[in-house]
């Protein structure tokens, strides 16, 4: 399974009542594929507000995205949690409705050991034939999936990738030691090009909602033998990469990018509590980011 080099962690559009806005979800999928050049979409990940989606909503999203994408891009279903049995259940549902792969976050809050994390991912992978992408984001989960444990998991045939947000050191170690079938993706837009330079295959991005086409050019320039051009694009986009999360003080994902999408004419709605919409000051900051 080739998920490509640019993957968008897609927001979940909501209507004024806070329910999933299906018409706008279809429009967003088209926009991300056609305008922003996404090769794969992650549905119901952190950016999709997975903590506030019910299981029914998640499975409906998986199925809807698969049917609407209709082979134009791959669909990865966010089925990870800190409950192994629950993750297995959602993973089986994702497979049933035709997802191309699953994204499994490191268990959060209960802080398992490295062996506990290994067994968690091993059990889920054993319960499905789908390709599995691991997701290591210590800033959210508190627990860090080590490079050594990641490389151990990479020996399992259907664990094929990791979305790595811990450090450039871990990206380097994993990329250097992984088997040929296993790919490393940066989960941090600001570190995307540096990660590719040390061996990452691509980027799982939030900013690609609004600058995906430029990010695709950056990646293609690097792999096409023009690292200077790739660097220039990275430097141009860097304020946006950082600003979507620091706007002007730290702002939870996906608050900023959802508002940015509304400025681009996509009616994706607001966020669900406990997230809240951006303040007027934050809205002005995001407007200025998009004008840069």
Automatic annotation (TrEMBL):
Catalytic activity: L-aspartate 4-semialdehyde + pyruvate = (2S,4S)-4-hydroxy-2,3,4,5-tetrahydrodipicolinate + H2O + H(+)
Annotated site (Part of a proton relay during catalysis): 46, 109
Compartment(s) where it occurs, according to its Swiss-Prot or TrEMBL record: Cytoplasm
Pathway(s) this gene product operates in, as recorded in its UniProt entry: Amino-acid biosynthesis; L-lysine biosynthesis via DAP pathway; (S)-tetrahydrodipicolinate from L-aspartate: step 3/4
Keyword Amino-acid biosynthesis tagged: yes
Keywords: Amino-acid biosynthesis, Cytoplasm, Diaminopimelate biosynthesis, Lyase, Lysine biosynthesis, Schiff base
InterPro entries in the record: Aldolase_TIM, DapA, DapA-like
Record bears the keyword 4Fe-4S: no
EC number(s) on file: 4.3.3.7
Binding site for pyruvate: 47, 204
SUPFAM superfamilies referenced in this protein's UniProt entry, alphabetically: Aldolase
Oligomeric and partner information: Homotetramer; dimer of dimers.
UniProt name for this protein: 4-hydroxy-tetrahydrodipicolinate synthase
Lineage: Bacteria, Bacillati, Bacillota, Bacilli, Bacillales
């Amino acid at each position: 399974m080739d998920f490509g080099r640019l993957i968008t962690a897609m927001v979940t559009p909501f209507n004024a009542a806070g329910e999933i806005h299906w018409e706008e979800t279809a429009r967003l999928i088209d926009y991300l594929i056609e305008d922003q050049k996404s090769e794969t979409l992650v549905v119901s990940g952190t950016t999709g507000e997975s903590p506030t989606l019910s299981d029914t909503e998640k499975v409906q999203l998986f199925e809807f995205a698969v049917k609407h994408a209709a082979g134009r891009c791959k669909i990865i279903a966010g089925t990870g949690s800190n409950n192994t049995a629950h993750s297995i259940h959602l993973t089986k549902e994702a497979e049933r409705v035709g997802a191309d792969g699953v994204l499994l976050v490191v268990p959060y809050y209960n802080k398992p050991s490295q062996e506990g994390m290994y067994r968690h991912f091993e059990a889920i992978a054993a319960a499905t034939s789908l390709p599995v992408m691991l997701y290591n984001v210590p800033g959210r989960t508190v627990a860090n999936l080590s490079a050594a444990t990641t490389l151990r998991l990479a020996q399992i045939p259907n664990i094929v990738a990791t979305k790595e947000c811990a450090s450039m050191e871990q990206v380097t170690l994993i990329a250097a030691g992984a088997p040929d079938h296993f790919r490393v993706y940066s989960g941090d837009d600001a570190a995307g090009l540096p990660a590719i330079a040390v061996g990452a295959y691509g980027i799982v991005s939030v900013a690609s909602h609004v600058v995906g086409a430029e990010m695709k050019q950056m990646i293609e320039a690097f792999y096409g033998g023009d690292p200077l051009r790739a660097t220039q694009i990275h430097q141009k986009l860097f304020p946006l990469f950082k600003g979507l999360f620091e706007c002007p003080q730290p702002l939870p994902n996906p608050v900023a990018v959802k508002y940015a999408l509304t400025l681009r004419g996509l009616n994706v709605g607001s966020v669900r509590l406990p997230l809240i919409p951006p303040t007027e000051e934050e809205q002005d900051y995001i407007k200025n980011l998009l004008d840069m």
